[in-house]
Amino acid sequence: MTATRVLVLNSGSSSVKYQLLDMRDGSRLAVGLVERIGEETSRLVHTPLAGEGSAKRERTGPIADHEAALKAVADELDADGLGLDSPELAAIGHRVVHGGLRFTEPTVVDDEVLAEIERLVPVAPLHNPANITGIRTAQALRPDLPQVAVFDTAFHTTMPESAARYAIDTEVADAHRIRRYGFHGTSHAYVSRETARLLGKAPEDVNVIVLHLGNGASASAVRGGKCVDTSMGLTPLEGLVMGTRSGDVDPAVTFHLQRVAGMSTDEIDVLLNKKSGLVGLCGDNDMREIRRRIEEGDERARLAFDIYIHRLKKYIGAYYAVLGRVDAIAFTAGVGENAAPVRQAAVAGLEELGLALDAALNEERSDEARIVSTPYARVAVAVVPTDEELEIARQTIALVAPNSLD
Ligand SMILES: Nc1ncnc2c1ncn2[C@@H]1O[C@H](COP(=O)(O)OP(=O)(O)O)[C@@H](O)[C@H]1O
Ligand SMILES: CC(=O)OP(=O)(O)O
Ligand SMILES: [Mg+2]
């Protein structure tokens, strides 16, 4: 029997999303999520999709760390006869957030690769440690299986130096590998390709601005299938206003906080990464809650929303200029896919740029990729659900068993 299944692990700072896929047709056999890892109220939601009468299972209770989370996931899969010991499993694919400049392709993990991912922890402190634990735990469970790392940074390695370099002393920058790497690349790659498909065109023929708006958020300018600019930088802190991250600030804010407010580097790191963005502005990082508060007339929530939109609009304008010609703007991830008011506000007033939403289409709820602009708009506005797990599984199987699907 040829092994055609791939387990994909998308480990975030306090969560693990996972999918077990059969790559003969890309169908999902099980999907799930462990959230609030490290808290008393951790929650595992597991949905087997393979058998008859399969139903979502949920359990709550403390799950101490990512290792415990993965073991709990392995137990759930076992209970469905989809355990990690299955001979049908070809590989485990891992989302790894920071791959530096070295990893431009999916990579089979060995000790040396793992050491390099570890070396990048200082530039992805919220993400790479969780990714490393995910890989180590999966290795311990199935030492014989290839573990494949798929990097968030890989898609952005096509950025020209003019976009990737900061205007700081070149020697200092080179000595410390300080440059803009960009993140969410698997999503930007997948969504830009799906957007081309939605337009009935080849990826080489379209220019797309992708807005990945989840808890972390980033924008990218994609010309003919290749990334030419993106809003995240050395770390996933730069760019858009996010759930808990500030996005762009004057770097002098950090000197000021050190000198005047007496904050330590670590305190400023926590402030900008975990206590800023929407949560810092209004106390909530969930866009649903913010919209609910706005409906009730809450001024702080309104201002937080306006700041979020203002930044988003600036990036749309910037990437329009970078690309020169834009065929589509694609909204994706939790906020981009679900929050019609965000899409509406982000493109409002941009009719001169060829952008015009169809209000009814924009409000419609759907899980499908779809166009929500008016037919006469020069630039299509699309809502394209991202699928980082499917994309990771595709890249994983292509690497470990390129001929298994013929
Ligand atoms: N129906 C909705 N309306 C508005 N925002 C939503 C909705 N559903 C999810 N979200 C937003 O999506 C965010 C999570 O997006 P997601 O892409 O899953 O993020 P991440 O992968 O970074 O965890 C939530 O914080 C919430 O703000
Ligand atoms: C890189 C990044 O910001 O990822 P996430 O949105 O999953 O936090
Ligand atoms: Mg995400």
Key terms for this structure?
about 400 residues, alpha/beta, 8-stranded mixed sheet, 6-stranded mixed sheet, about 35% helix, binds adenosine-5'-diphosphate, binds acetylphosphate, binds magnesium ion, ATPase_NBD, kinase activity
What can be said about this structure in brief?
By secondary structure, this protein is α/β, with parallel strands linked by helices. It has 15 helices and 14 strands.
| Approximate shape | globular
Helix content: 25-40%
Secondary-structure content class: alpha/beta
Residue share in β-strands: 15-25%
SSE ordering: EEEEEHEEHHEHHHEEEHHHHHEHHHEEH
Q: What is the average per-residue confidence, as pLDDT, rounded to a whole number? A: 95
Radius of gyration: 21 Å
Binding site for Mg(2+): 10, 388
Pfam families: Acetate_kinase (PF00871)
Family: Belongs to the acetokinase family.
EC number: 2.7.2.1
Structural notes for this entry:
The protein has an eight-stranded mixed β-sheet with strand order 5-4-3-2-1-6-8-7, with helices on both faces. The protein has a six-stranded mixed β-sheet with strand order 11-10-9-12-14-13, with helices on both faces. It has 15 helices and 14 strands. Helix 1 packs across helix 3, helix 10 crosses helix 11 (299-323) and helix 11 crosses helix 13. The mean pLDDT is 95. The chain has helices at 66-79, 111-119, 128-141, 161-164, 170-175, 185-198, 252-259, 265-274, 277-282, 287-295, 299-323, 333-338, 340-347, 359-363, 388-400; strands spanning 5-11, 16-22, 27-35, 43-48, 57-60, 89-96, 107-108, 147-151, 207-213, 217-223, 226-230, 328-332, 370-371, 380-383. The protein is an alpha/beta fold and 406 residues long. The chain binds adenosine-5'-diphosphate, acetylphosphate and magnesium ion.
